[in-house]
Amino acid sequence: SYSHQDKELVYQIGKRLEEDNFRIWLDRDNMYGSPTRAMAHAIENTDFVFICMSDSYKKSGYCEMEAHYAYQQQRRVIPLIVKGPYHADGWLGLLTTNKMYIDFHKVSNFDEAYSKIIQEISRHRGKSIPTMSTPVGNHGPAPHSVDIKPATVVTAPLPPRTLSHTLTLWSEDDVKYFFQIKQLQAMLPICAGMDGSTLSGLYTMCRTNSNAMYDSLKAELTESNSKILPIVTYLKFLEEVKKYVPITPGSANVASVVCNLM
């Protein structure tokens, strides 16, 4: 998933993946019929989705739609920073929280960053790193392996504090304290690093599409920390956060449905 303003580097990454015997899909290839249907079909039938982050990516409505759908379908998402310096925030920061970024802007050369993509693919698959092909031209020796482990969040109890009644004013420590006093520690690994504004964004997404977000959060927690997210914890999270969200006109009509009884 990428912005066409960043296509030069994206095509270079795609070319190397093909040389290493990965089957890839780009929207320049195999586009038949509706572009939206083609993208949905590609996401539904892939093992990994690379989110190629940049300012132009975040501003693209199509890119946002693709990224959300990838999470809804519980695809394995690997974020790449393809143009920098860049810091993901807003909806993109929320979706990539607790994910390891592979920053093509910061590393010294393309091969070093590309090797980390192979490492991430191998880590997710639980297999040894495949032998990388030697592309046309002299790229020097193969990069050394980098052992990447899933993040584990260990939080020491925070001292008592008074939380603002406005969620968006909370600091990161306020968010941690909220999860601590509400006995919602099970969600901390997927909410680590969030401040009140980011948590508010997560809450809005959950209220808008509760079923899909529960599936997405549950899958992310299982993948990153090998833990489960009980449905009762998720429902309690929604009810507790709701108390700190200002009531706005029309907000009472937002549906939050986890189970449909017919």
From TrEMBL:
GO biological process annotation, one example: signal transduction
Domain TIR span(s) in chain numbering: 1-117
InterPro entries attached to this UniProt entry: TIR_dom, Toll_tir_struct_dom_sf
Name of the protein described by the UniProt record: TIR domain-containing protein
